[in-house]
């Protein structure tokens, strides 16, 4: 027996004098064959006596069962959730309709009260009252002015890299700044989405909502102002206009200013006035106490 034949029978590789014959007879390199044999040997040594395959099958079956139970439970609860959601939507729509109807009724009653009051007051007094109501925001006004429009950036819009200008949404502070600069530019009457501003108005946020005098407003936001002919030119040079243009450029937020003819701004709701009254402190005996009696000063007295 030759050396080459003995090597071939022990699993070694025999070599043929012709290269093509050798290539077709032994296409796998010896190194790959040795590695495969080593992995097979290690796999047999790692199995202690029962296969891992059944355990994996059991685990997969349990997970599938749990997912099936969760899916069935979710689908069983879905009609109840859908019914509750539709009920809430119906209630919101009903309450909104009632609120709109009450608002229209309030406006009609306010107009009726104004007519009766003007009829009772007569000429000059009625005109003076109308002027005072227009100045304080309690009367409807008409005139030329400007409209400042703000809107959130489209969904998915990302701010420019490195731009420290806040989120791409309109903030309550933006509306505050716009309204203040419009007053500073000479505006005589301002309304935000139809909500008339007065000397006691507030613009704030509650969660994700913006409230104007505790009434929610949603975007796009329109700040309408009635004022002199130079109102737009004055406002364009204000701090809020310059800031909002930069914010719009960096975040995609929408901001614009345009002239508007024959604007009509509604009257603000009647304010709830509160009056301060001096505190009255009564002595235990009911009589006046002399300055030297040693009694403690009352809170209204300052205590100095």
Automatic annotation (TrEMBL):
Compositionally biased region (Low complexity): 281-304
Keyword Membrane: yes
Keyword Transmembrane helix tagged: yes
Keywords per UniProt: Membrane, Transmembrane, Transmembrane helix
Pfam families: DUF881
Chain segments carrying region Disordered: 262-304
Secretion signal, residue range per the UniProt entry: none
Membrane-spanning intervals of the chain: 49-71
GO cellular component: plasma membrane
Family statement drawn from the similarity comment of this UniProt entry: Belongs to the UPF0749 family.
Protein name: Uncharacterized protein
Originating species: Micromonospora endophytica
Classification lineage: Bacteria, Bacillati, Actinomycetota, Actinomycetes, Micromonosporales
């Amino acid at each position: 027996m030759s050396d080459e034949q003995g090597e071939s029978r022990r699993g070694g590789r025999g070599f043929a004098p012709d290269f093509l014959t050798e290539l077709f007879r032994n296409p796998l390199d010896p190194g790959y064959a040795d590695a495969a044999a080593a992995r097979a040997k290690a796999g047999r040594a790692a199995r202690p006596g029962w296969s891992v395959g059944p355990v994996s099958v059991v685990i997969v079956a349990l997970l599938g069962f749990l997912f099936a139970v969760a899916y069935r439970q979710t689908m069983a609860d879905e009609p109840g959730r859908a019914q509750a959601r539709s009920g809430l939507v119906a209630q919101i729509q009903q309450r909104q309709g009632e609120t709109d109807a009450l608002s229209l009724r309030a406006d009609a009653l306010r107009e009726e009260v104004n007519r009766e009051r003007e009829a009772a007051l007569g000429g000059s007094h009625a005109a003076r009252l109308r002027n005072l109501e227009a100045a304080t925001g309690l009367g409807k006004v008409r005139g030329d002015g400007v409209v400042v429009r703000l809107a959130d950036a489209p969904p998915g819009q990302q701010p420019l890299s490195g731009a420290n200008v806040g989120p791409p949404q309109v903030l309550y502070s933006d509306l505050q700044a716009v309204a203040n600069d419009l007053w500073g530019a000479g505006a005589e009457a301002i309304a935000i989405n139809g909500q008339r501003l007065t000397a006691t108005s507030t613009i704030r946020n509650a969660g994700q909502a913006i409230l104007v005098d505790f009434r929610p407003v949603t975007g796009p936001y329109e700040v309408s102002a009635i004022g002199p002919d130079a109102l737009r030119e004055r406002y364009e040079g204000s701090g809020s206009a310059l800031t909002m243009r930069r914010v719009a450029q960096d975040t995609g937020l929408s901001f614009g200013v345009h002239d508007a003819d024959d604007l009509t701004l509604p009257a603000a709701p009647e304010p709830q006035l509160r009056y301060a009254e001096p505190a009255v402190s009564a002595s235990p005996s009911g009589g006046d106490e002399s300055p030297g009696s040693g009694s403690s000063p009352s809170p209204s007295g300052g205590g100095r």
